[in-house]
Amino acid sequence: MDLIICRNVLMYLTPEVAGRVVGNLYRSLVDGGWLLVSAVESSLMGSLPFVAVDFPGVIFYRKDLEKKQVQVKAESAPHWTVPAKAQMLSHAGKEVGATPPAPAVPPIPTPSPAPGEGEDHQEQEGALTPYEEALASYQRGHYAEAEKKLLELLTPDAGNVAAMALMARARANQGKLEEALGWGEKVVAADKLSPGSHYLLATILQEQGRVAEAAASWKRTLYLDQDFVLAHFTLGHLALAQRRIQESRRHFANVLSLLRAYGQDDLLPEAEGMTAGRLRDMVASMSRIA
Hints:
The chain has helices at 15-28, 118-127, 130-139, 143-154, 161-173, 177-190, 195-207, 211-224, 229-241, 245-259, 276-287, and strands spanning 3-5, 34-36, 50-55, 58-63. With 290 residues, the protein is an alpha+beta fold. The chain folds into 2 domains: 3-76, no CATH class; 118-287, Alpha Horseshoe (Serine Threonine Protein Phosphatase 5, Tetratricopeptide repeat). Helix 8 packs antiparallel against helix 9.
């Protein structure tokens, strides 16, 4: 492979397993090939023969069999165009590999029918509100289309918090992180007491590599809602990565305690498809090294 993008996957694995995965990725690259991981996973790359190449807002790792250079200039980058920030806050629930997801937006009343279903489809689409139309586009992965519909909606209704939050997510999923951050900040300003607003902002800050600011926003999330499971999990993972073991154990214990209210296959609120059982397994795996 010339290029492998593996973002926000390694963070869910133990260091031992992550090391094996990175080794496999390294062996899958041609000499001179490139690996892109998220900012919070950079600490896992130091023990392998990669050369770090620093670009504005992102670090690429280049396979160099002979380690001829300790630094590579940015102009040595691949000739193709790679977005500095890959897709985040995915609309699809993933068992591994997803950034701890942003607060889920309310689902539309009924799924959109497949194209080609004729008049029934048109009648159902006509019954949707403008926000629901934008949400339906977002859930299909049509982020630019959702963005266009949201702009139309926000023009007369600039204070629509749900629309602003969905706009932040849609722009983040297109790699427009600065624009996403601006909308995330508007959401917080409009709804300061919503823990979900602060959590959404934190996920965008994390993707920008602004980990300290993201952590502060996650802490505000917990200040507003001490039972916010995903905020405890994310702060526990961050503390573990920074070797603050006691702090990570405390957050993971809170996660496990809160998960007692859920069955193994229950979907967690605001987790976009992640089950309680899956999160339990992840915490158990991390707790073994904490």
